[in-house]
Amino acid sequence: MLVAVTRMAETLTKEVFGDEWIKSLSDSNLQEIISEIKERTKLFICENASYQRFIDRVDPRIEGITQGLVQQTADAGDAGRIRSKPRNEATDLTLRLSWEQKVIVVQSEQEAYKHEINGLEKTSEALLHNYRAELEALAVIQKEINKSSYEFSKIFVTSGCGDLVKPIYYEKFLKFIQDSMRQRDTIVDKLRLKNSALHTRMRKSREQMRQKEELGEVLRPVDFEQLKIDNSECLRKIDERNQEIQRLKLVAAKTLQVLNAYKIQLTQAIKEKERIKLEIAQRLDIKRRAQSEMVTVKKEVKEETKANKEFQEHKSSYNVPSVIGLIRLKSEERETIRKESIHRRKLHLAQMALARHKKIWLRIRHATADTIA
């Protein structure tokens, strides 16, 4: 298609400008013109493909498209180009779309791409879910196979291999197979019950959806009016509830203030209580000490009373001696003191004599010992 469009462009250029103008261009200029024509051709091919898809999706006889097909006469010449001969005017009858119709086509193409992408996403998600389910099933199967293989190896292979190969009994092997099949049957029953429960839930959900759709289809204008009335009633109740909530919030705020005041008073009362307890404990301690001191004072008072009584009795029975008796006692005292001093001198002299006699005795003893030796 690209080659055909290129050939058409070359033919049109020859018809409009002639062969001499083309021959007058250099190879580089021709290459640039050809590349530009190819780029434009690619754009035209893309637009034509979009239009073709749009026509395939939509009826081509609709008025929105056919009314835009207008016949225009295009000037095929280019005033900026230098020609070697006078330019021939040619008429190009083309059918073109307006910008609004092009926008409609592009929007339709965009919506088609979106639907296609959504379909691909849904298909991909479904495939992904299926693959995940298959992977989970394969993982469960692999786990069961590994478990069965481990149990079989533990029961038969390990006990049957060694230096002396032990025989594997048929009854034991058959029992193992039966137990395995029984476990698999149990798992299959559980899965079947779970599957049936899921089917039941799906059926109920579909029934609910069908009922909702039927109710939605049966609704009439009267029902909508009733719904409006119910809605207004609900809005009125909501306003009343909001006002009640605001009033309760105010009451709660006042209650909170009162509660905080009571909490402060309670804290002060607790502090006062602790202070009073401490003061009571101090006073009880003072009372105990006062009671112990009172007992001690009572004992002392009793002793002092007894001593005072004895002193009073001694005082009442005391007789003052006469002067002659006092003189006689004084003379006796002086005589006793004189005798004491005499005896002390005698004692001192006796001690000195004793020391002298000890020295003499020791001298005599040493002399006797020397004589005997």
TrEMBL record:
Subcellular location: Cell projection, Cilium
Family: Belongs to the CFAP263 family.
CC per GO annotation: axoneme; ciliary basal body
Coiled coil: 259-307
UniProt-recorded name of the protein: Cilia- and flagella-associated protein 263
Organism, as annotated: Opisthorchis felineus
InterPro entries from the UniProt entry: CC_CF, CCDC113/CCDC96_CC
Record-annotated CCDC113/CCDC96 coiled-coil domain positions: 181-354
Alphabetic keyword roster: Cell projection, Cilium biogenesis/degradation, Coiled coil
Name of a matching Pfam family: CCDC113_CCDC96_CC
GO biological process, one term: cilium assembly
